[in-house]
Design brief:
355 residues; mainly alpha; 68% helix; disordered N terminus; disordered C terminus
Length: 355
């Protein structure tokens, strides 16, 4: 024991990790706004240090605008854009990058302090180092994504946007998992293997759907075939199979179709999972969490349809992306609960086993 609790747990560390996870959630929201407002290519350079400051005077703004006017997006999409319009899209991309830097500081600086004070459970230090590395990698991937739209395209490559968004979701889920570990201490019991596998499959299905959603966003596939449940009056509109396997990444009809079909499978799977939890009469908290996840999946599916049929308005599009992060976070917490066999999330008493 130390003054912060048992050596294998730390509530202050858990609160720090939950806070960073919340920041990553808001980063996903800001990223959605940046994408939907077409702001992602407004800053054509990557300056990790100096780029933290926006243009400070009219000359700086004109220099930034001149650089933007040299890329295809300006010439083919935004020709004739005014300075005020440019400042609007510049603001969102700058805010997106700045918030990423703030997340890095919010993680790195407390991590150094907690390590110095020996407050982080030893078994979690390696995980935190890995999270720090993933955060740095996310910055590099963000620029790799942006650079794909600066020369030959008018937007970023869908597969690169998906990698960038997918890593954000991965970091978000890992932060939640690690925070729960820090809060509750080392594991002492496990649930039945079959039930743990079911929760793992559900989480994996949610993550795959997030990636498919990233491809829809990157290919702008939500702006076509906005009827539902059919697509342009058909089950599957014509697909350009002549381009080969790349059709799964770039053909907008196929990308949207894949997202729809996997969404249906996830919708059914989440309901089946919740019904099984009720039938097996799991511990109260575990069964309730299964229904929370299923409810979130159902709401996200309804929101997805609403976003599609309204041709992806900014508000619905951002909420839908935030909803994806929320469902992933809930599915992560659900798997953690199942593996720990705890009836309630923050119990201080003895751990209960699955009945």
């Amino acid at each position: 024991m130390n003054r912060f609790g048992p050596l294998d747990q730390s509530r202050p560390v858990a609160i720090w990790l939950f806070t960073v996870a919340a920041m990553v959630f808001f980063m996903v929201v800001i990223g959605g706004i940046t994408r939907l407002t077409g702001s992602g290519l407004s800053i054509t350079e990557w300056q990790p240090i100096m780029g933290a400051l926006p243009p400070m005077n009219d000359a700086d703004w004109m220099t930034a605008f001149d650089k933007y006017r040299q890329i295809p997006q300006y010439a083919l999409v935004n020709a004739g854009m005014s300075m005020s319009e440019f400042k609007f899209i510049f603001f969102w991309e700058w805010a997106h990058r700045l918030f990423g830097r703030l997340i890095g500081l919010a993680f790195a600086l407390p991590f150094i302090v907690f390590v110095a004070l020996k407050m982080i459970p030893r078994r979690l230090i390696g995980r935190c180092v890995a999270l720090l590395g993933l955060g740095g990698l996310q910055g590099l991937i963000g620029w790799w994504m942006v650079s794909s739209g600066l020369s030959e395209r008018v937007d970023v490559a869908p597969e690169r946007l998906t990698v960038h968004l997918g890593l954000a979701f991965l970091i978000f889920g890992a932060l939640i998992w690690t925070a729960l570990e820090a809060w509750s201490g080392q594991e002492h019991s496990r649930s039945p293997v079959a039930w743990s596998r079911g929760a793992t499959v559900l989480l994996a299905a949610v993550f795959i759907q997030c990636l498919l959603g990233g491809l829809v966003a990157g290919a702008k596939a939500g702006y076509i075939y906005t009827d539902w449940p059919l697509m342009g009056g058909q089950v599957l509109p014509p697909v350009e199979w002549g381009v080969g396997a790349i059709a799964f990444l770039h053909d907008r009809a196929l990308v949207q179709f894949n997202h729809r079909v996997w969404g249906y499978a996830l919708f059914i799977g989440a309901i089946v999972y919740a019904v099984q939890a009720w039938r097996w009469r799991l511990a109260e908290g575990l069964g309730a969490m299964a229904f929370v996840v299923a409810g979130a999946v159902i709401l996200q599916a309804v929101l997805g349809v609403a976003t599609l049929v309204n041709v992806v308005p900014l508000g619905l599009g951002v909420i839908h992306q935030a909803g994806a992060a929320l469902v992933l976070g809930l599915a992560t917490a659900n798997l953690w609960l199942i593996r720990r066999s705890q009836p309630r999330l923050f119990t201080s008493g003895p751990r209960s086993r699955v009945l």
